[in-house]
Amino acid sequence: MNRMERKNILLTGASGTVGFEVLKQLVEKDRYNITVFDQKTKNSVEKFLPFKNDVRLIYGDITNPEDLKAIEHIDVAIHLAAIIPPLADEAPELAHKVNVEGTLNLIQQLENQSPKVFFMYSSSISVYGDRIDNPYIEVGDPLIPSEGDAYAVTKIESERNVQKSALDWTIFRLAAIMGNHKMSKLMFHQPLDTALEIATPRDTARAFVNGIEKQDQLSKHIFNLGGGESCRMTYDQFLERSFEIFGLGELDFPEKAFADKNFHCGYYKDGMDLEKIVNFRQDTIEDYFEMEASKVSTLKKTAASIFQKPVKWYLLKQSEPYQAYKEKDQKAMKHYFN
Fold first, then answer.
1. Which of 135, 154, 275, 280 is positioned for an S-S bond with 266, CB 3.0–4.6 A?
2. What is the pLDDT of residues 230-260, one digit of tens each?
3. Ranges for the NAD-dependent epimerase/dehydratase domain (predicted)?
């Protein structure tokens, strides 16, 4: 395929976990002209250095329409850039500015300069809200974000803007994407009996990359993206395995450390709809645990094992449900507990 026949691909959010996997897979294909639009940070500059001869790099701020003017003649746009939790919940105005206004800015630039573009948008399982009592999820289900979930609200608004645009589009609602996760206060927001379906970053990336050549089948449709039955377990089982891998022993936090409600996740009942078209699933949840285990050296695991009590104490200090319970904060307790 000569260079004139190559599709021009735009990728936003390439410095993120999924975005970086998309970038690597696009470069490996060696059949696309790739434009990366990202913020200029120490992290992004270092990450993109090995690809400087393979892609066109545009550094800018998606909330500034002027920065987007260098984007033109695009055939397919994979839009992954977003403010995600916990920052999205801590700074909802920033999340709205980037996730909603930034997406609208990008849509308008593409409508003006690349009106025939195929716009692939990354949404989230969070749009369905709390599904503890009804964990099997389908695309047509109502979008009811959990109380206080600013991220989900931005994704719902952006989905609507994508659908109202003059562009051809598809939307993938991503399940829990597990890879490069750090333990944070968010781990306590999720009820232990949550039905959890994950997907690995590389499988998720494969769905977007394979989707480039499946525009006809994806066009104007929304899909649930998850790893399928081999990527499912309950959240407490997931944490138990994770703690074992990191050398942290048993999951023995006190009562009320974890919330009972107002999170998200579940099992995608219609997840095969996307798999049949783009054939992206290669990893199982066991593959995920193997990947995580390979990152933990014997030294790190031994150290964690020795210091597991102070580590767990430190983690528990970050549990907002537990703090609400201890302080008898009635409003917060009502949010976190049944």
1. 135
2. 999 999 999 999 999 999 999 999 999 999 9
3. 9-185
